[in-house]
Amino acid sequence: MAKVELKQPVVQAIAEDVKDATSVVLVDYRGLTVAEDTEMRKQLREAGVVYKVCKNTMMKRAFEGTDFAALDEHLEGPSAIAISKDDATAPARILCKFAKNAKALELKAGVVEGTLYDADALNELAKIPSREELLSKLLGSLQSPITNLARVLNQIAEKGGADACEAAPAAEEAAEAPAAE
Fold first, then answer.
1. For 12-164, where are the E strands, in sequence order?
2. pLDDT at 181
3. pLDDT (tens digit, 9 = 90+) per residue, 76-101?
4. Distance of CA 157 to the CA centre of its chain
5. Beta strands 79-84 and 49-54: pairing type?
6. How many Cβ atoms sit within 10 Å of the Cβ of residue 174?
7. Beta bridge partners of 52
8. Pairing verdict, β 23-28 and 79-84
9. What does this protein do (predicted)?
10. CA distance 83 to 21
């Protein structure tokens, strides 16, 4: 069997992984201990991110004709790819957070939703919260006024209703002013 025939399934597997991906991040993994690598892979897997160590030539072939072809210039030295199909910022967020503790891990570049980012831009992108966090913050902001209104109405009801509540001083003065005229 020719070497090309042996490499073709690997290229196909990479191409299949990146086909519907929203983001791909390249990292240099040299110097990571086995424990660090295992922990990083676990965190990525829990977030639904595919992490693979592949040959650069195989990745170049798999990236041909896609948005990820922009990563070709960064494919030097040992490279691994983190691929996400759901959360576009997940690979950058997890890898940047992990790189703070594991100094050997170096981010090279990434393509997020069709845009090429260098390592510095990926660090900034990693600061963006996940979609779920943003939705929960939005929901909390929307519920806050309603919750406060419900508390006020509940306090009025506990005091015996609107008749038992004291009128505001400004309202009393306004009510007395027309009567005095």
1. 23-28, 49-54, 79-84, 106-112, 115-118
2. 47
3. 888 899 998 888 888 888 888 888 88
4. 44
5. antiparallel
6. 11
7. 81
8. antiparallel
9. Forms part of the ribosomal stalk, playing a central role in the interaction of the ribosome with GTP-bound translation factors.
10. 6
Amino acid symbol at 64: E
Dist CA 149 CA 113 (whole Å): 41
Domains, the chain, ranges and CATH?
3-128 (3.30.70.1730), 138-180 (no CATH)
Q: Which residue has the higher pLDDT, 88 or 172?
A: 88
Beta-carbon contacts of residue 17 (< 8 Å; ≥ 6 apart): 50, 52, 83
Give 118-169 pLDDT, tens digit per residue: 888 888 877 777 777 878 888 888 878 888 888 888 888 888 765 655 655 5
For residue range 107-124, what is the model confidence (pLDDT) as tens digits?
Answer: 888 888 888 888 888 888
- pLDDT score of 77: 86
Paired with 54 in beta bridges are: 79
Contact present, 109 and 121 (Cβ < 8 Å) = no
